[in-house]
Amino acid sequence: MRFYSHGKLLITAEYAVLDGAQAFCLPTKKGQYLEVKENTSGLINWVSKDEDGKVWFQDQFEKTSFGIKSTSETQNSENDAEISKRCIQILTAAEALSGKNLFEGYDITTELEFDRNWGLGTSSTLINNIAQWLEIDAYQLLEKTFKGSGYDIACAQAEGPITYERTHESQKSLKATFTPDFTENIYFVYLNQKQNSREAIAHYRNQTETHQKVLVEKVSNITQQLLKCETLAEFELLLNIHESLISKAINLPKVKTKLFPDFEGSIKSLGAWGGDFVMVTSKNDPKAYFEEKGYNVLIAYEDLIL
């Protein structure tokens, strides 16, 4: 059995999507595969491969009267131990939601198509793949494991641009039309560090409830306007307004102000500010500018977005 899910980028409504703002989301061409084979060992053999086919994590799990545990006596690193805990958490939740016994035995192999440091959805694509395998609700599995808004699950399942809204009880993902003439002027630049979104969310939560409601309304409006843009100038103006709103909400400087003040074009943070990718608009190929500053991963819109 083989399953596949797309990676993700959150273009608008970072943080505010947690409170019901309408977000503009783009699934990526690159994602993650999950291959599952039955065995008769009563164990789960887990292997995770990176985009080059190299194993970056592996473990074996068994089920005892105390729950699921790793059979490894030692972990290669503290990071491996943390990943094992996450795998156990996912397997425990998935087994409970599916009502199936996963410990008749399986060989599980995950295969990434993108660098796992890029923040394109190593976890969300895994959650969605496991949900496909066991025929369970991916959003429920996410809630019992990593939590979050769920936009990344929506992207994992999408076949093109979408808008996404989360309410207290449900999620709404709708196909969006985004085919402006200026996609050739849009690029994505990796900031050389993976960002933990939990810290940034804590900043956002320090706002008053009134400020959050106003922000949700403004951001949702920007999302709707972005989808109607006909010129690059209009698109950039909306991106700049969005950056200012979020900067104020989380009390962090805009990435352009902090890192690229002399850049001729717009730069917008995506997802958790301070890491992962930023979206860049430029009338000319900006590769040389970013390489000179030490940022060597620049991907054109058409090469990354589904």
Describe this structure in words.
InterPro entries: GHMP_GYDIA-like, Ribosomal_Su5_D2-typ_SF, Ribsml_uS5_D2-typ_fold_subgr. Keywords: Kinase, Transferase. GO terms for molecular function: kinase activity. It comes from Zunongwangia endophytica. This is GYDIA family GHMP kinase. The structure is a single chain. It is globular and about 60 Å long. The mean pLDDT is 92. Helix 2 (122-134) packs across helix 4 and helix 6 runs antiparallel to helix 7. The protein has two domains: 2-174, Ribosomal Protein S5, domain 2, CATH 3.30.230.10; 178-304, 2-Layer Sandwich (Alpha-Beta Plaits). Helix content is 35%, strand content 26%. Strands 1, 2, 3, 4, 5, 6, 7 and 8 form an eight-stranded mixed sheet that branches. Strands 10-11-9-12 form a four-stranded antiparallel sheet. By secondary structure, it is of the alpha+beta class. The longest helix has 21 residues, at 78-98. It has helices at 78-98, 122-134, 138-143, 151-157, 197-205, 209-226, 232-250, 255-259, 287-292, 301-304; strands spanning 2-10, 23-38, 44-49, 55-64, 67-70, 106-112, 162-166, 171-175, 186-190, 266-269, 277-281, 298-300. It is built from ten helices and twelve strands.
